[in-house]
Write a structure and sequence with these properties.
The complex is a heterodimer of chains A (294) and B (204). Chain A is 24% helix and 37% strand. Chain A has seven helices and 14 strands. The longest helix of chain A has 17 residues, at 238-254. Chain B is 24% helix and 20% strand. The two termini of chain B are 20 Å apart. In chain B, 47% of the residues are buried. The chains are: A alpha+beta (294), B alpha+beta (204).
Chain lengths: 294, 204
């Protein structure tokens, strides 16, 4: 994609006049990218990307201001800004694996145009000589991407003197692609081969009702203890553990007092926090993926 | 977050008939006038006829006749009939239901992600493992990908849970969940289930 875009941007130089701005843009197959956009064009790509929860990258000469638990300032330099659909923001240089600044998931990202002196610009920049000298470049509006969160109050502002390339991707993580099977597929896989959960597991019912809702698979282990399976087709966090805990508690109340009920979360993987919560609650985890739908 | 869902079918009187779906995978794509509960044999007319009856019912039927071999994505037996729009959030079990799907008269489907206010699974300081559904929650309309919004909500809840463990008041964190969701789509587009009557919004 990028190669094609670069070709588009440069190929006209030999035989034709330089390509106008739209020629440096390409879109399709979930990717929109513009090489050397004006600030206004870059802003439009950013706004479209954020509106559709796409992955946004902006590469160019920029400065970075951070205010929050501390404050920091990075002067002009060539950097890569990455805005992820979950609200994470990363600023990378050409060195190291760690970003030079970042914001965690859940932040609000807002792009805008600002005048060279840094004030927000509600309209286009003043006109002038389109050939543009250095002074004119300085006066052109600039792209600013602001990321903010309230708890704790933190803010990053990345202001681009110029943008070399802006791209938006409708990204799908390869892990998600590998897990395209549904929970129904996962359930069928377990019903067909219960030993995938553990040797001796016997499913007795699916979608069995409890006072807290219906459990995915209800069964017994090799020792006759009640086992509740909660199935997830993707990597899961603590909310899924809380849900399983509710089902197990409800079943313990429903069954006789000394009934032993085991709760097992079946998913491809769990977060660290979920794993900790499972241990605290005496619940278990089995790593299992839905079958490929190929 | 679980994958359970509620499905609300709009009635001619503007109210809704509410049903349960055990899995929300692909739900929006499989609901159609001929197969209103999804997954039924398109030639079987029982499903469309049943929904037609339910959409004008004033009380939940005592029994619903469903063929023994019927396999549907949405349970044809209604949870409630004639539910006003404003009362839909009150039927959501936050912590168990992941989404509410609203089906209008033309069978256009709008999904709402259910985001609980309670942050118990994300904060040791709260001292519980599971979400208290009585704390309420917010239903956020899905404009792009449900997966992306789910991740975004999980990230926000994770951050607020960590804040609670660092001393942020749980009640303030619950309000922050609502305010965060409001920033995503605008406060007017949220459907909110307030904390249950008789429950204090203070405390963990």
């Amino acid at each position: 994609m990028t190669d094609e875009a670069a070709d588009d941007a440069g190929s006209g130089a030999d035989e034709e006049p330089p390509a106008p701005a739209p020629e440096s843009a390409m879109a399709g197959r979930g990717v929109e990218t513009v090489v050397a956009p004006t600030a206004a064009d870059a802003l439009a790509v950013c706004e479209r990307a954020l509106a559709r929860d796409a992955m946004l990258t902006v590469f160019g000469r920029c400065s970075v201001e951070y205010e929050g638990r501390a404050s920091s300032s990075l002067g002009p330099g060539d950097r890569l800004l990455v805005c992820k659909p979950d609200g994470s923001v990363l600023v990378h240089t050409d060195e190291g694996q760690q970003p030079v600044n970042w914001q965690p998931p859940g932040c609000t990202v807002e792009p805008s145009l600002v005048e060279a002196d840094g004030d927000a610009d509600d309209g286009d920049a003043e006109g002038g000589d389109s050939e543009g000298g250095a002074d004119d470049v300085e006066r052109e509006p600039r792209l600013r991407v602001r990321s903010e969160r309230t708890t704790p109050a933190e803010r990053i502002e990345v202001t681009f003197d110029r943008v070399a390339q802006v791209s938006a991707y409708d990204a799908v993580d390869p892990e998600d692609l590998a897990l395209r099977g549904t929970e129904a597929d996962l359930r069928e896989r377990i019903l067909a081969d219960p030993d995938l959960v553990e040797p001796g597991f016997t499913p007795l019912a699916t979608e069995r009702q409890t006072p807290a809702g219906a459990v995915d698979v209800y069964g017994e282990d090799a020792d006759g203890r009640t086992v509740v399976l909660e199935l997830k087709r993707r990597r899961v966090g603590p909310d899924a553990v809380g849900q399983l805990s509710r089902y197990v508690d409800a079943l313990r109340r429903e069954l006789h007092e000394d009934a032993e009920v085991r709760g097992v979360l079946v998913a491809p993987s769990v977060t660290d926090r979920a794993r900790q919560l499972l241990a605290e609650e005496g619940l278990e985890f089995v790593s299992l993926e839905p079958p490929d739908d190929s | 977050m679980s994958e359970r869902a509620l499905v609300a079918y709009e009635r001619p009187d503007g109210r809704y008939t509410l049903h349960y779906a055990h899995r929300s995978d692909g739900l929006a794509d499989c609901l159609a006038p001929a197969t209103p509960f999804g997954g039924a044999d398109p030639r079987a007319e029982w499903a469309a006829a049943l929904l037609r009856d339910l959409l004008t019912a004033t009380d939940p039927p005592e029994s619903v006749r469903v063929p023994d071999d019927a396999v549907t994505a949405v349970d044809p037996r209604p949870l409630a009939v004639a539910v006003p729009w404003g009362r839909l959030p009150g039927h959501v079990d936050f912590g168990a239901h992941e989404a509410l799907y609203v089906v209008d008269r033309a069978f256009a489907v709008v999904a709402y992600l259910a985001v609980p206010f309670d942050l118990a699974p994300h904060a040791d300081a709260i001292g519980r493992a599971s979400v208290d559904p009585a704390r309420g929650g917010v239903l956020v309309p899905v404009e792009g990908s449900l997966d992306a919004l789910r991740e975004r909500a999980a990230g926000a809840r994770e951050a607020l849970g960590a804040a609670v463990d660092r001393g942020f008041a749980p009640a303030a964190a619950r309000r922050a969940v609502r305010e965060t969701a409001a920033r995503w789509v605008g406060p007017d587009r949220l459907l909110v289930a307030e904390c249950a009557p008789g429950r204090s919004d203070a405390g963990p």
